[in-house]
Design a protein that fits this description.
heterodimer; A: 169 residues; alpha+beta; Alpha-Beta Plaits; 2 domains; B: 405 residues; mainly alpha; Na+/H+ antiporter like fold; 80% helix; globular
Chain lengths: 169, 405
């Protein structure tokens, strides 16, 4: 495991120093205004060799790529691979979706597909206010327009995606 | 005479130009605002074919500038947290107090050398001691040094300096406004101010939960309006008991910082502070007549030389004490050179109290020169290290070896 040091930078944000295996260090600054800056320190150097700046959105995208949300390296050990196989997806319920109007219990999502609904985000149209149901029970009914957050294995998620979007059946 | 809104429009057009220019050239906006205030204010150069007196000093510009100081200090109070100073730990406290202490002594010596009188000396110390958090932080980001190990120390020292200036402003304002000529009675007045402040802070602590509940408003409008009113009420109260309104603003900031709304308030106040703070720096420049620069220029130049030399030394010693060696220590010493907002605030306070008029042009020239010098120094820290510190370090190393052998 890498050694990570955390430090407060008053007025700027937070700093994380990651000690890598090769002796190099990676400095990650999260600025209070949202940007991230990455610095590369060669072994035994106190001045960074190079740096890159990311906006908040870019940083999140890059972060999920590095975290293996889209593609996992195949050479990992079994335990780590099992965690890395976990996929979390945001899916919007389409008007003609097979799941529309049915409850989580009816569909037997966990039993039949192996996916778990973590949360459902509903948009209340009139005020454009978002309302979230976290960990909804088996009696929860899917309605078109909702955004469903599900967790499960990648293949299971793909099958569930077909049922939610009404495609790929 | 132009009517007030036209006057204000011209003023803001110039302020915008200053801020945009500063952004373009990666230069701090504060000295530029002061400079343009001098060049376009009522004391601007004017002749038969050219009249640069674009902005009149009216009630409205003065009022906005005054609000600027209040908001600057309100923000300082809001953002300040005692836990941050404590969090820094003992080493930081040692390094920070050595740095601030040495600089303060240097400021006192300089002031006494120039003026031979206590009020001016104390103001001079206030102007030259504390570096500008805004300029230094910007410099660190621009030079891509935010991830360097010594940056933690630099930012820690800045926090330390904020604490120092908060206390010092309170004492100084009490001393200046009391109009005392003797140091002892003046300092006594200052101490009374401090006692009053600590009393109020204690009360604020007690009141915290009530304030917390009372300010618990979901919508932004009443929240910011009530907070702003609180700020004005506190400024009024402070004025009544002969403490400067700026200290009142600082105080209410410190009290509100203890409530759970601090973060939200900081976000709401920051743009207001930027807006009116810019007017304050501009109006400060407007109050300065460049024709009085003659005697001030020499003093400013001397002060700059003393600051650069003193700061290199105190910064290096401070960093050395905190365990930073070599280039890192030089980086610390070179980066915390710029002076800015606090110098202007202290000089403005001196103007309000009617202390020697030479201090304002002096402060203006001083921050301008340092703003020009400090980025160069910070960029060239490697060169400074190699020419000044390296030989000393190698000699030390060699001596140690000979002693060991």
């Amino acid at each position: 495991m890498a050694l990570i040091k955390e430090a407060e930078l008053p007025g700027l944000g937070k700093k994380y120093m990651v000690e890598l295996e090769g002796g190099e260090r990676l400095g990650i600054i999260i600025y209070d205004e949202g940007n991230r800056e990455l610095f590369y320190f060669a072994p035994a150097e106190d001045e960074p060799t190079c740096s890159v700046t990311l906006t908040d959105q870019e940083a999140r995208q890059v972060g999920s790529i590095i975290g293996g949300a889209f593609y996992q390296p195949k050479l990992l050990e079994k335990l780590e691979a099992a965690i890395a196989d976990l996929c979390i997806e945001w899916l919007k319920v389409a008007p003609q979706a097979p799941v529309a109007g049915r409850t989580i219990g009816e569909l037997g999502l966990r039993k039949n597909l192996g996916v778990t609904v973590i949360a459902v985000i509903e948009e209340v149209d009139s005020k454009k206010k978002k309302c979230t149901a976290i960990n909804p029970g088996p009696g929860f009914t899917f309605v078109p327009g909702q955004t469903v957050v599900v967790a499960g294995r990648r293949d299971a998620i793909a099958r569930f995606e077909g049922m939610v979007t009404g495609e790929g059946r | 005479m132009a009517d007030s809104i036209t006057n204000l429009t011209v003023a803001f057009a110039i302020i915008s130009a200053a801020v945009l220019l500063a952004r373009k050239f990666r230069f701090s906006a504060i000295p530029l605002l002061v400079l343009l205030g001098i060049l376009c204010g009522p004391h601007a150069p004017h002749g038969t074919w050219l009249d640069l007196r674009l902005v009149q000093s009216t009630e409205s510009t003065a009022l906005l500038g005054r609000l600027g100081v209040l908001l600057l200090l309100f923000y300082l109070g809001l953002e300040f947290s005692a836990s941050r100073v404590v969090q820094g730990g003992a080493t930081l406290a040692k390094g920070g107090s050595i740095y601030v202490g040495l600089n303060f002594l240097r400021g006192i010596a300089l002031g006494w050398l120039f003026f031979h009188s206590w009020p001016e000396t104390l103001v001079m110390a206030g102007i030259t001691t504390v570096s500008s958090s805004a300029i230094v932080t910007k410099l660190l980001v621009d030079l891509k040094r935010t991830a360097n190990p010594e940056t933690e120390l630099i930012l820690g020292i800045l926090v330390f300096e904020d604490a120092f200036i908060a206390v010092y402003l309170s004492i100084l304002s009490g001393y200046l406004l009391a109009g005392q000529t003797s140091l002892l009675t003046g300092l006594l007045a200052g101490l009374i101010t401090v006692a009053f402040i600590s009393g109020l802070l204690l009360l604020g602590r007690r009141m915290g939960p009530y304030l917390d509940r009372w300010l618990n408003m979901r919508s932004g409008e009443p929240f910011i309006v009530v907070s702003f009113t609180l700020l004005l009420v506190m400024a009024c109260l402070a004025e009544r008991i002969h403490v400067t309104e700026a200290v009142g603003a600082l105080l209410i900031g410190l009290v509100l910082a203890e409530t759970s709304h601090a973060k939200r308030l900081i976000q709401m106040v920051a743009p207001m502070r930027d807006l009116f703070g810019a007017v304050f720096f501009f109006t400060f420049g407007m109050g300065i007549d460049y024709r009085t620069f003659g005697p001030a220029a020499w003093l400013a130049l001397l002060a700059v030389v003393a600051t650069v030399a003193g700061n290199l030394l105190s910064g290096f010693i401070g960093a050395w004490v905190c365990g930073y060696r070599g280039r890192a220590a030089v980086n610390v010493a070179c980066t915390i050179m710029a002076r800015g907002e606090f110098a202007v605030i202290v000089a403005g306070l001196a103007a309000a109290a009617g202390v020697a008029g030479i201090l304002q042009p002096l402060a203006a020239l001083y921050i301008l020169l340092l703003a020009l010098i400090s980025p160069v120094l910070a960029k060239r820290s490697r060169w400074i290290y190699e020419t000044l510190v390296r030989p000393w370090e190698t000699r030390r190393e060699r001596e140690r070896q000979t002693v060991g052998g």
